[in-house]
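INTERNAL AUDIT FORM
Audit reference: QA-55
Scope: verify that the stored structure record matches its stored sequence.
Auditor: D.O.
Record contents follow.
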Amino acid sequence: MTARAWLNGRASGIAVALLLLPAVVLAQDASQKAATQPAASAKVSWQMTTEYPQSNISGVGLTTFARLVAARTDGFVTVTASFDNALKISSGEMLRATETGRISGGDAFAGPLEASDPIFGLASLPFVVQSVEAARTVNAKARPLYEKALAAHGSKLLYMTIWPSTGLWSERALVSTDDLRTLAVRTYDYNSAEVMRAAGARADYLPFNDAIAKVRDHQLNAILTSGDGGAGRKLWDYLRHFTPINYAVPISLAFIRTDAFQALPNDVQAEVMAAAAETEKSQFDLLANRTAENYAQMRANGVTIADSVPSSIATALREAAHAPVDAWKAKVGAEAAAIVDGAGRH
C-alpha cells in the first residue's frame, strides 16, 4: 500500500468515526439516564393505614382514595390499606412511622398529631366549631398551615375528612354535673382530657383500641368520640347511652411521604392529587346523612340517645374549655389564633 492510499484510508475512517460520534454520545447519555431514573413501567405500591375500622368515616376515605388512585393512574399507583390499627400504629404515631419508612402514609385523626405540631389540635378544640359548615370554613383557612406542618415532617397532605360532631358514650345517662364526676372517660387528645378533668371526670387520653380494652375490663365507663367512631367499633356492646354534647367537629388528615410522591412522574402526581380531591369531596358529601345513619344504627342496637344536653352539664363543660383553648392559642402563631377567634362568627 502506498503512503497516499494509507492516508486516504485513514481519513475515511476518521470521517466515519466523526459521523458516528453523536449517536454514540446519545446512546451513552440514554444509558446513564436509564441507570439513574426508575423504569417507566415500574409500578408503585403505597402502604397506608388508619387506626379506625373500614366502616368508619376514616376507613371509608382510605378505601375510596385507594380505588380512585388506582383507576386514575391505570394501576401505576396502588394503595395497600390497613384498617383498625392492624399495623399497631395509632394516629399520634403515624407521622413518625411515615418519616421512618414503616408506612408510606396514612389517615390520622388530627388531634393526637398535636404532639408533632400544635396546629393539628385546631379542629378538636372544645366548643370552637359547632357546625359542619363552620368546620369546612375553618379548615379551609387552616389548610396551608396543615400543609406546612406536614411538610416539616416529610409528608404531603392528600385530603382531609370532616367527622360528625363529638359526643359522650357512657354506661348510664348523664343528667347533672354529679354524673360527670362519676366518669372514667377516654379522650382523644390532651386538650379533651384537660376539659373532662376540669369538669370533674377522671380522664385518660388513649388510642381507640386501648380504650376499648379498658372499657371491656371496666377500667373506663365512658368514651369521648362521635357516633361514627362509636358505631364503627360497636360501643353499644359496653356503653348504652350517648349524649350529643357537640364537643367539636374534628377532622382526620390523609398524607403521603413527600419523597414517595415526588418520585412519581409529573402527570401521575397530577392524577394522584385529582384522586385526593375527589376523595375529599366524597367524604364531605357523606356527612349529609352520616349522623342520621349512625343514630339509626345506634338505636337499633339499644343505645339511648339524649334529646338534649342538660344545661348544667353544658355549662360545666364550656367553662372547663376556656383554659385549654387559651393555652393552645398561646402556643401557635397569630394566623392560627385568628382562625379560632373568627370561628365563632360562622
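Auditor finding: record pair retrieved intact. The chain has two domains: 44-165+249-293, 166-248+298-341.
Action required: none
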